Fold these 3 entries.
Entry 1:
Amino acid sequence: MASEPDTGTDQRAQALVASYARAGYARIDPPVLQPAEPFLDLSGEDIRRRMFLTADPQGRELCLRPDLTIPVSRDYLASPAAGKPAGYCYLGVVFRHRHGAAAEFVQAGIESFGRADKAAADAEMLALGIEATTQYGVDAPQIRIGDVGLFSAFVAALDLAPAWKRRLIKDFNRKSSLKHDLDQLTLAASNGSKDYQGVLAALNGSDPKAAHALVTDLLSIAGIATVGGRSVAEIADRFLEQSALNAPTRLPRDTRTLIERFLSIAGDPDDAAGELRALAADAKIALAPALDLFETRTGFLAARGVNVRALKFATDFGRGFDYYTGFVFELHGARTERPLVAGGRYDGLLLRLGARDAIPAVGFAASIDELAGNGGVS
Amino acid sequence: MSAPLILAVPSKGRLQENAENFFGRAGLALVKPRGVRDYRGTIAGVDGVEIAYLSAAEITVQLAQGAAHLGITGEDLVREMIPQADRRIVLITGLGFGFANVVVAVPQAWIDVRNMADLDDVATAFRLKHERKMRLATKYANLTRDFFATHGVVDYRIVESAGATEGAPAAGTAEMIVDITTTGATLAANGLKAIEDGVILRSQANLVAARAAAWSNEQRETARLLLDRIAAQKRAEAFAEVRTRFAGMNEKLFGIARQKFGIAAPFGGPTSSGMLTLHCPPDNVHALANFLRDNGAEAISVSPLNYVYTRDNPLYAKLAGELDADAL
């Protein structure tokens, strides 16, 4: 054999997935060679430079799988179980250019689909992730958790134009952009599209139907053909939004303060929940469903024997991937930068992979190399 | 005989013509001793240089690898094709041809999109509405990615496009494009418009040096000679020679003229007989002639310059400085 993986590592990894299989997660091994499209579409263009891309003779873009979440999701959707509750575990290589580390590395993990009891499923994922560190003898890993759903609920409840809400949600995972957004929001509104100021002002407050008619007329008078995937209705809608946005765009000082107060909440999950309730009450905004889910999850974590007091929760923790929609977590060892285990809830992903209806999904991946590097002797 | 310096030159089209004219003006006649179909050549009267005729894309690759020492290619290709380009190559000088801007363009019908901030918002709204990302057709995937990242735009997909990129939105294979444009006419013909702050790069043909090439002392000396002629020609192009007999030229008048017209006196002040030679930017020679006569000069002649050699060699100094820094 040319290159057997280190047997010590390999045995522990095999034992780990065997334990996941015993917990009810079916072992699955998707092809290493995958269509590139879903990864680029779901993870963003930034991942392209970290992927190993190739093409088949028909010119279709293929890649060596950069992770297993999307391949497992695709296999699940193609199976008879699609749409029904199902859970899978895996152990396999993934390929990603990484700075100062091997581009081919081994991951073990779980993906759980279709469970309606989200709080319980979230808690189970974190507990199973912790089990991986236990198997490798990692001493007291640091556990960071977040909840993207809390930020979404918070932004939805704010009194802001839709364009600003979209932007805040999009930039949640990019901390410098988010700070820039907040600065922009508090700037005076003078840098809008000046040429259209008159039209925008005239549109302000008019009803969508009239606006659509006006925009359609404007385009036909100017002799502009509509090309590209956006319809005239979409353009008109956003034009109308801009008219609302361009009016007094100045974000009230207290709204910015509120956003900053929200994003500064961190600590153990019980204390944080208390602070979030206080914030919701002070600002008279409804965070209830998202916050209820958060507290129920903490309850399930405690019931699974997780030391809730030791969890490091932060409202601004988001893992940097756009497809997470709720609970997110990372486990860190003392000896390395990269997380040992990382995962979260991605309820929107299967829809975007072609599912007919939304399917709840949550999962995690454990990095075998990182675990071995932080663990005790096997 | 030691290994020659490899100079890579575009092998076809306007770029080849412009490149040959450029070298020709510097007194460097490119010749193909074995006929026009040959892809190797030399420079008449200059030893130690081998010309490699290649496509601009191939030239860029060869420079990145150090297979050629010097080459002519567009900055757009350098920035797109070579990761961390400034570590692999040195842009010695822009050549004044092959101008093209790499721009972001969207359908004209998107009257709600003026700048990158608009585009950012529209991209996210599109993804939320259609459950897929907007597609962007381009052959500049790397330039696009970096530019979009600095503007915080994430909700888009790149569709690699080999040719006729401007047609992609009309053909329905992409919503927007990144492409080169010179006048914007092609964009308009395809129902597209450039984004206000969407100029990714203002590109032109450049003389480029490869850091990774084997730079022997002989090859450096050959480069010095070539760059000396090119610098002499460039300097000559920037000035016309103005000659007059004007004994009354003094420090004060010279100071005024230098400030107003950007002149230089390469050979110092008037000779004992009052002869004076000045170098003046071609656009200012008539104004300078008036100024000199108003102050007492009698006759003035103006003629073009072929070469202006000075003690320094700024183009070679730049190359040598970079290569020496690499060697440390």
Entry 2:
Amino acid sequence: MAELERLANHFGDIGAICNDASFSLLHAHMGVLREHVLRAAHACFGHRLMMDCIVPGGVAADIAEDGGKHIRSLIGTVNSTFPELVSLYDNTASLQDRTVTTGVLVPELALQYGAGGYVGRASGRSFDARRWPGYPPYAKLTFDIPLREDGDVDARVWIRIEEVRQSVALIDQILAGLPGGPFIVDMTRTGKARADREGAALVEGFRGDVFAWVRLARDGRIAAAHLRDPSWFQWPLLEAAIEGNIVADFPLCNKSFNCSYSGVDV
Amino acid sequence: MRKLLFKNLLSPPLTEPAPEADDLALAHLARSFDDAQRRALGRSLSIRHVDAGSCNGCELEIHALNNVFYDLERFGLRFVASPRHADVLLVTGPVTHNMRAALERTYNATPGPKWVVSVGTCALDGGIFADSYACVGGVSKVVPVDLHIRGCPPSPVALLQGLIALLEKCAGAA
């Protein structure tokens, strides 16, 4: 699900960045790919954005019986259309003119602010929560973490393109090794625990590492919680990246960061 | 690029046929239109989207309306950048206290005749944010709502069904 979400959002972002350079052809094509991913998600998990599909103890429902078929057909579509679109991006001089050397984020700042996701990885910071601290099943899967040093809009687009390729390969591997057995364990418990309990997790979302911390009271209710969106470390860097750029390039810089509004408001 | 464009010329469009107008929405809308308004607006509506504290899930699906599968503009519906240009306010989110004044001001800045369409469970009654100290809870507590589109978030098809119902009422076809 995380890799499908990464696919959908990276497609959307790549298209939207091109659209901000008035190259709507790629926007339309990427929109098609994004819609294909959302429809496959709906067919497999019952929700286009896969909301409420992951619950305490596991997943809310098993993948649909014909889910594998939907995902394989999606991967087929991506494999047959994406490379052509990538070469269109790479070979269109008017588009490259807008993205290359635009909105440069220097590696020092990315490191200083601990920027994750494509923002960090386009500026030389290779952090990826799937690799470190890591969480199942990624240790058993083979994937690369793309890295660039240039830190411009073009680099952030290329990180996304590479991550699309990695995610497609990951989905292939996950599908091949899909385990049987129960998909959820019962988390309800009776009686009171001896003390408050708390836990934290770091998960690699499409924007970068999402941190979550929850403390449960003795009766099992949530006593306190904190969610940290990756955009917390990316919004301030956008300000640094747009410095010295022309006003017309602001939408490009902004879209290449694609920071979350609601994620930071949480 | 030429090859891709040529291929697009030869392949059939991906745009899907329009869904039927939502019956529930049609019934709901019956009271909010009169003939004078229909004549003024014809079969075209400009929409201003207002995020009143949404999780952005509704926004993702609203954006999807512009992709080639749903192609909102073929219905004469388009998004505009200012409430001054709008006939319809499309409001998402449980209306946080911080966004209340903004929503009211947007409503007041929209010239009549105007309609408010609330989108998503949060906009109906606050959804999972209902009774939160940060939320007013539901768009109708702040501005009068003419149509509600259900879902968390509503699918693009559900959004289209609601908006087409609004158009049909507007054009006097229903």
Entry 3:
Amino acid sequence: MFEVLIVDNHPLIREYISTLLGKEGYTVLTAEDGLAAVDILSEHHPKVIFVDLIMPNIDGQTLCRIVRRMPGHKDSFLVVLSAIAAEMSIPVKECRANAYIAKGPFKKMSVHILDVMELAKKSDFKAVETEVRGLEDIHAREITKELLQLKHHFEVVLASMNEGILEINGEGRIVYVNGAAIGIIGRVEEKLLSTNFVDLFKEAFRHRVVSYLEEVRAANGSPPSPGVEVQLGDKELELRVYPIREDGQKSIVLLMDITERKRFEDQLRRSQRLESIGTLAAGVAHDFNNLLTVIQGNTDIMAMDLQQTHPHYERMQEILRQVQSAKRLTGQLLGYARKGRFVVRLLDFNQLIRETVETFGRTRKEISINVELDPELEIFEGDAGQIEQMILNLLLNAGDAMPSQGALDIQTRNVGHEEISSEVFTPKEGKYVLISVHDTGTGMDSGTRERIFEPFFTTKEMGRGTGLGLASVYGTVKGHGGYIDVESEIGRGTTFRIYLPVKPALLGEGREDDLQKEQSAPEPASRGTILLVDDEQAVRKVAGEILRKLHFDVLAVDTGEEALQLFREHREDIVLVILDIVMPAMGGSEVFRELRGLDPKVKVLLCSGYSIQGEADQLIGTGASGFIQKPFSFRSLGRSINDIVGPEA
Amino acid sequence: MAEELGLEENDALRLVQIFIETTEQDLLLLERAFADQDADQVRKLAHHIKGAASNLELTAITEAALAIEEKARSNLLEDTESRIAAIRSGLDSMCTEMTSWD
């Protein structure tokens, strides 16, 4: 005779049916719940399975569903045993069982059980009944009906939740999953049920999950510690476990898909890191500019006193050239920190690219360069100097990735924000111009890719790279309200894509800054007193000397308070105030306002190791006469002064 | 009883033994739940006892368990103690009866 499996959580039912069928010659297997049944079905192939409808650890309806999907068991003759048949209609459609028997007194049940066994054999286990046998022997109870409706209600609630919910037993095996959990985990229900929960995760995360489960168990009913974050497939999940108090063994697991949230957090973290490095970089640039002012000023003065034939004259000129190089570096740092000079005008991007590519191509003839420029490319507003430097830096970077030979593809085209898809940013609405630069060079791993926009980060050997090229590219792109994306793999080259908005929201108001126009200025003659306010003693000293060489009398002070005091005393003699913006205690802005209060017509030349952006820009808007960027040369300071007070008579 | 269940006497005896054992366990848990005034747990245990008693058509135990279950559903536990006593006495008389079979 064939095997029969009885799945019921009450030992009395299991014993009774086993005895009854054993006497008829059947081999009877028993399981106390759905989970134990799944285990038995992995080794046995019973032809008839009796399934109790309401059981802990995988209920009857779920077990029927699983059996119907199991390759070796889907043709089993399923008999549902139900104690609730009178109170509620059995979910016949969902169970897809062959027969249904209402639980009741054994002497009545025995008749139905034996009848059903006969039916199974006669029909070769194929007959299907939808009527419930034995209903006439029991009576409906309102109270049970209500409870069942409540249970059904909770099932509906669980099924409609966005969070994945699992129930795991004391051994960690899954006995319940809701629809969201199935979706998040990405496996069908029958594959999930009875699986060990921890086995869902890859080796790298298992340890974390296990120790979290242990931690929750050790907490012994107290509120669970914050969840644990793990990866499952390509998803980032947060996992929380809540022990079921009255049971003591089982737990509820809450699965939340936090992939999107993590992506935004990463994006935020990355941009915050770049921002803070930017602030640091700007601070360094500012201090260096002060130092360079002193070096340049002193050298200028010395050079002025020397004949060109003097053996040290050429050395002085070399110092001044090096100061100019250093100034370009601090300029790049300020560019990265978006504190650089910004001169906005309408730009022909294609033209800038053609020119830069030509310059670059001359230096790297072994690289084949393919340029595809969209002739309909939108004209956009930007700072030509910065954009040109940006293109050059991209090309140099690509060139460095191809030390011997390779190919470089440069393209431009118009794109709408909806065409831009990136994992690291969400573009604002509007039109953009895209430049993409693809090289066939060495490519980067993800660790390098993460850090390429950080200033001072370089993969080149000591002395070859400053680590500022891509950082200033980043600063320029951000300064123009654009986005940058990089795609790279070791051995497969790198593609940079830069999206610049056609109408950018530029930081600060762009203006044609004519303070530094290259023109030869006549040497000024003595024309009164200049009040020089700077907290750096060395800057005061050298600037004072330059001013005196320019035939001015100089009052030099290191604080705003002193400056105001001296201004009150010498108002009649002072033709100009040279005011450092960044000072401790009373800052340049405050001093400027006070000075204007004392004399609305006061002429003030602002200066800073930072740039015109920000405070200086605002002050010029409220009446300051000009701005000079440190480090300044003898000539440029002279020109700036001339522009304000007029040339020397 | 064995005849009514369509079983031989030994088999019927084993069933009754299982019933007594499981019901005694359930009854101990029921008493504890009642002491804790945990109405939900009282209801579940009474339901369990009732199901098994009705299989064996033990009317007195079935009725007492049903009454506990229905009251506990409304969070009422006042008569639970006397009904537990009724179930216990039902079990005791079954034990006595079984001894007489031996």
